[in-house]
Amino acid sequence: MRECALPRLSSEAVPLSRISSGAPPHKRVKVIHLTRDPRGSITSMQGLFLDWKPSLKCGPLWEDMQVYDRLVQKYPERLINVHPRGQLSLHPTKTMAKLTRFLTGRPDVSAGTHRYIKRHMNSTRYREDPLSTFNTSKNKYQSWRWQINGRLLSQIENEPSCRKVIERYGHNLFGSLDRVTDPRIPLRTSDEGPREEVLQMYSH
Q: Are 79 and 33 contacting, i.e. CB atoms less than 8 angstroms apart?
């Protein structure tokens, strides 16, 4: 969104604890806090040969989420949380409109952003590649459920800090590989059942 003159900070790689001692360092700074279910992020890391122990991932993430809660209460207009593999994957245009409104005060998504979403997030012409910006974004929603192995699932769900993060997201703790790969069991605890599109996507 080049037309946005506001400075932006993504805290996916920058711990919020760096600014937890007070307000964001400048009045015009706004924080987009990107978070993901640790079962998905750790599975992705292992797929890229990055060995992340659940405690090393979830401990800082849980602390970061608590810092976010404190900051957003004080500065609600300057922080927003987004789940890239949730909201952004399933509803890219709606989520980008929300972010545009957050950053600029305007609800309109630019023509360039619309083109990017159509070309990069609804792409059917390009081979799926975890490092590519071209993909079919809705296929990324909870795709980790069919990639994780039973040992890693158990390690993550039995790690106390990971359980706190997962429960904070409102996501189910599956407890077994059979349950995690069952598309009839929803990811979110508030869902009565999976969406039809999810059943079609992951039924084998």
A: yes
Tokens coding 179: 């349950």
- Residues 95-153 have pLDDT tens digits of 888 888 998 888 788 888 888 888 877 766 655 566 677 777 777 788 899 999 999 99
Distance CA(78)–CA(16), nearest Å, equals 13
Domain boundaries, the chain: 8-202
Cβ-contact 150, 177 below 8 angstroms:
yes
Confidence label for 22 from pLDDT (cuts 50, 70 and 90): low
- 3-state secondary structure (DSSP) of residue 80: strand
The type of residue at 116 is Y
Tokens representing residue 3 in the block = 């037309």
Nearest residue to 10 via CA among 73, 106, 103, 97: 103
The pTM (predicted TM-score) of the whole model is 0.76
Contact 101, 107 (CB under 8 A): yes
Give per-residue pLDDT as tens, 63-83.
989 988 988 888 888 888 888
Q: Is 105 left (phi over 0), alpha (psi -120 to 50) or beta?
A: left
Tokens for 173?
């703790």
**Based on the number of CB atoms within 10 Å of its own CB, is 18 exposed (0-12), middle (13-18) or buried (19 or more)?**
exposed
